[in-house]
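Working notes for the structural subgroup meeting. M.R. asked for a predicted model of this chain before we commit to crystallization trials. I am recording the input and output together here so anyone reviewing the notebook later can reproduce the run.

Input as submitted:
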Amino acid sequence: MTIKYFHAEWCGPCDQQKSIITEIETETNHDVERIDIEENQQKANEYNVRSLPSVIVEKDGVVEKQFTGVTDKNSILSIAER
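Returned structure, recorded in token form:
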């Protein structure tokens, strides 16, 4: 299970999401990939990310769920731990 967190430096709500992602990283064994869209626009396009912050839960290369906007830890983990 991989959690992909799409963000940008200029994105205010991304700061809120960043702390939630950090909690997930420290409290679980899920792989977390932080993707700055300014540095990796190609990956953002590949996952059809159009709004920030975006969190994608992926299992075995298949997107299970894509969240847009600040998303709470329990919502992310409910998908990641199915």
